[in-house]
Amino acid sequence: MDRKMASETVQGDYFVIKAKENGVHVIGLTRGHDTRFHHTEKLDKGEVMIAQFTEHTSAVKIRGKAVVITRFGTVDTDE
User: Fold this and answer.
1) C-alpha distances in angstroms, 45 versus 30, 59, 60, 61, 78?
2) N or C: which end of the chain has fewer CB within 10 A?
3) Contact between 26 and 59 (Cβ < 8 Å)
4) Which residues pair with 41 in a beta bridge?
5) pTM value?
């Protein structure tokens, strides 16, 4: 498999997180036998983060009021 094809098989979907308040935490969780936190970002009101699932990130936890947009739809944490 060439380098481009290998990269495409590892990369996952993109998603967008828009903070509706200051201090929204976005926490990346690892893939593998033990799930662990591996990356944290803090967003303030109006900030937007575009993220992607990868070979290292299998899940994302969001704390605070935000809108999450994926190819499957939109989730508002207020609801």
Assistant:
1) 26, 23, 19, 18, 14
2) C
3) no
4) 26
5) 0.76
